Amino acid sequence: MKVDKLIEKRCWRLQRKLSRIKNDAGEASSSDGCGWLGNMEDEPDIPPVKQVVVAICAMEKKSGSKPMKEILTRLEEFEFIRTVIFPEEVILKEPVEKWPLCDCLISFHSKGFPLEKAQAYTDLRKPYIINDLDMQYDLQDRRVVYSTLQREGIELPRFAILDRDSKDPSKRELIEGEDHVEVNGVIFNKPFVEKPVSAEDHNIYIYYPTSAGGGSQRLFRKIGSRSSVYSPESRVRKTGSFIYEDFMPTDGTDVKVYTVGPDYAHAEARKSPALDGKVERDSEGKEVRYPVILSNAEKLIARKVCIAFKQTVCGFDLLRANGKSYVCDVNGFSFVKNSSKYYDDCAKILGNMILRELAPTFHIPWAIPFQLDDPPIVPTTFGKMMELRCVVAVIRHGDRTPKQKMKMEVRHPKFFALFAKYDGYKDGHVKLKKPKQLQEVLDIARGLLAEIEQKRADPETEEKKGKLEQLKSVLEM
Ligand SMILES: Nc1ncnc2c1ncn2[C@@H]1O[C@H](COP(=O)(O)OP(=O)(O)OP(=O)(O)O)[C@@H](O)[C@H]1O
Ligand SMILES: [Mg+2]
């Protein structure tokens, strides 16, 4: 029986490989849904095994990027997952009916991407969606992003919207002073931030107060080694619609957060473009990143953002200021760059998420693996046991310096005189620590030893000769 199962499994693997070769050679998948590795005509007894086809539908710049390649290579390592990338040509030119089939769709908007076509495709094929497409319209408008954040109770900078396209005059009221603006009755003192309502427009201006020399910092999409430039212009823009918001005083870095589902977030800090606009790069030309550990409150924010915007893979910016963290930007689909740990984690989480969702319906023999926070129970020859993950020990050596003590009973009046001299009778004890005091004890010991030497000592003192010598040598040390 066991051998049968083994052979069966090997056959499946062989079939899968053959099918891949057939597909790669240009044979399109069958029309009943791609990825079926059904019975081959000459081997009618082997049960069909479905592979989950995960498709990437995005602009070539994104689907062909290094992080995407790294993550797809890792996703391919799942036995039951196969990945396909929709070519940009197909996305832009072909009707959605002609787009390849898939079971799971990873699709996201970037400049030039036909989001409405991707939506039409999902309506037609109904694949399992990783990043919601409707919400990707919301992400293109900072006003909608901010109102979503507010609705979810996520902290964000205090803001007001100046909507110059609005027919309602109360929504396009701007009163400008030297050091402030009043937007629809809401006052913002400098420094404040002015952001175009379109999230695709990265021309964000920060206005400085006169006390700091005035003028403004003009941010833009990175061009080589620059991300902003100072301008002596202190007046705000007079065309276009903007969000005005309080400038949050950070330590000069932005915290970039990248979620993969609600329970996972990677974070790193980068120099804020609002500083001098010079991009920090390492010797390889990569932008310098600082490690960040998210607080529990920030992890909760990441979870809320991921869920609120229905984006499994979601990047957003946090500003750590005044002891709190404020979200100032939500970007939607975004992978961390140059982090193998993230690539590994991300592919593992996505692969498990996809199989957890689709394996049961497709009758794929896939067992849910342990989650990170599951107890570490492992099968052993004695049955299932808790796995020892680590031992934490605080260790101290056993050597101890011996106490340097000597006990001696004294009866000689000279000792009693010393006891009385230092007020011993008052408290019933005396502590002699000072060199002068110890010298006095030594003088008594020497005196008594001399008396013994000259046979002038009483018998009681004579008996103490050994102890007196010990006392003398200790004090002479
Ligand atoms: N309220 C604020 N207070 C302080 N700094 C801010 C504030 N809003 C934005 N910034 C700074 O400006 C930068 C750009 O702002 P934001 O992220 O909103 O714009 P963006 O162009 O959409 O960015 P991205 O390139 O991430 O899409 C932030 O990274 C941050 O350094
Ligand atoms: Mg940003």
UniProtKB/TrEMBL annotation:
Places the protein is found: Cytoplasm, Cytosol
Keywords, alphabetical: ATP-binding, Cytoplasm, Kinase, Nucleotide-binding, Transferase
Catalytic activity as recorded in UniProt: 1D-myo-inositol hexakisphosphate + ATP = 1-diphospho-1D-myo-inositol 2,3,4,5,6-pentakisphosphate + ADP; 5-diphospho-1D-myo-inositol 1,2,3,4,6-pentakisphosphate + ATP + H(+) = 1,5-bis(diphospho)-1D-myo-inositol 2,3,4,6-tetrakisphosphate + ADP
Any one annotated GO CC term: cytosol
Annotated segments matching region Disordered: 455-477
Biological processes, Gene Ontology terms: inositol metabolic process; inositol phosphate biosynthetic process
One of the Pfam families matching this protein, by short name: PPIP5K2_N
GO molecular function list: 5-diphosphoinositol pentakisphosphate 1-kinase activity; ATP binding; inositol hexakisphosphate kinase activity; phosphatase activity
Biased composition (Basic and acidic residues): 455-470
EC number(s) reported in the record: 2.7.4.24
Function: Bifunctional inositol kinase that acts in concert with the IP6K kinases to synthesize the diphosphate group-containing inositol pyrophosphates diphosphoinositol pentakisphosphate, PP-InsP5, and bis-diphosphoinositol tetrakisphosphate, (PP)2-InsP4. PP-InsP5 and (PP)2-InsP4, also respectively called InsP7 and InsP8, may regulate a variety of cellular processes, including apoptosis, vesicle trafficking, cytoskeletal dynamics, and exocytosis. Phosphorylates inositol hexakisphosphate (InsP6) at position 1 to produce PP-InsP5 which is in turn phosphorylated by IP6Ks to produce (PP)2-InsP4.
PANTHER family tied to this protein: DIPHOSPHOINOSITOL PENTAKISPHOSPHATE KINASE, INOSITOL HEXAKISPHOSPHATE AND DIPHOSPHOINOSITOL-PENTAKISPHOSPHATE KINASE
Protein name as it appears in the record: Inositol hexakisphosphate and diphosphoinositol-pentakisphosphate kinase
Annotated source species: Cherax quadricarinatus (Australian red claw crayfish)
